[in-house]
Design goal:
Elements lengths: L3 H22 L3 H33 L4
Helix pairs in contact: 1-2
Length: about 60
């Protein structure tokens, strides 16, 4: 596992937190909710691609085609 994927997820979280805080201070709670939801979905897609790669490597390791 690359360490850079952890840094990418952390950067997305920090950026989303800053943007959500700014939007909430500006009175845009709905948009802040969408930004946080988009960040969660983006991180989930990144993690799901890693899990898919894991299952593919396990399948090739045990020759389960």
């Amino acid at each position: 596992m690359d360490i850079e994927i952890i840094f990418k997820i952390a950067a997305i979280g920090l950026l989303a937190a800053v943007v959500c805080t700014i939007l909430k201070q500006a009175g845009r709670e709905e948009i802040a909710t969408f930004v946080s939801l988009a960040a969660v979905v983006l991180c989930l897609v990144m993690v799901l691609s890693m899990i898919s790669d894991l299952f593919n490597s396990i399948r090739s390791l045990f020759a389960l085609y």
